[in-house]
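[step 3/7] fold_predict: job queued, chain A
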Amino acid sequence: MRREKTLVDKEQPIFSTRAHVFQIDPNTKKNWVPTSKHAVTVSYFYDSTRNVYRIISLDGSKAIINSTITPNMTFTKTSQKFGQWADSRANTVYGLGFSSEHHLSKFAEKFQEFKEAARLAKEKSQEKMELTSTPSQESAGGDLQSPLTPESINGTDDERTPDVTQNAEPRAEPAQNALPFSHSTAISKHWEAELAALKGNNAKLTAALLESTANVKQWKQQLAAYQEEAERLHKRVTELECVSSQANAVHTHKTELNQTIQELEETLKVKEEEIERLKQEIDNARELQEQRDSLSQKLQEVEIRNKDLEGQLSDLEQRLEKSQNEQEAFRNNLKTLLEILDGKIFELTELRDNLAKLLECS
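[step 4/7] structure written:
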């Protein structure tokens, strides 16, 4: 726990996501071994002290991923929701299972981004070390005597032979002092080149030595942190042994909680289905309400038209009644005229008969 706290205090999280963590089986190198029982938080951290990027994941107090990103690492998508990368320092291959393809793509983009940043940081660090080490080497005045052995400078027997020859030949054959000037110049240039190469190797070895010293200091700090963590874990184990009698009760309680969680999940699923059904019913009710409003409007229009028709019908009935009364009056007048006409015809008939009689008598 102290180790993780030290990492968090020194490094800052840049990006976090959740995934299931796996490691390659060290025996078969083919099968995946899950290192987390459930999805855990996987984060990118930036160590401003060493200028490096890390991938760190904790399962409780246990660090299941602590991988430093290097320029030669590659994150590979093996499926739509699974990706992996190899860590040569940890001598393993990490695998992450995500809940969606979007989370996998986002993690891969961040991996490529921080990998490029690690490459640039490494190049800047190398340039800085070369700039700081080169003046110190030049200020030494070309002194080749150092605590490093010839083997540590990567020199071979062939490379060291000219030094012996140069020092031995003047004593064995003094006549070589009479060599031509051009030959001496070529030898001088050759040794200047050798000297420059040795200076470069010495600078690289000095930088490596400084880096190793810094790593040793860091490892000592990590060792102290691990020792403190071991003591804390030892105390924790002692406490757990004291409360081991409650393990069965805790296990039973955990089982009950898991069952309760499962029941709640099933209930939640049923409620979600019911909510979907109610949403559908609400949509249907809205459609029916819209139809009802439309029918109500049409009904109002029909009622208005019905009132208009009723008014027209009442007017027509009044006009019909008036027409009927006029026809009845006309009929009565016609009957009266017919009766008068019949009387007149009867009188004319009598008059005709009388006139006929008069003619016969005359």
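[step 5/7] annotate
The chain is about 65% helix and 15% strand.
The first strand starts at residue 11 and ends at 24.
exit 0
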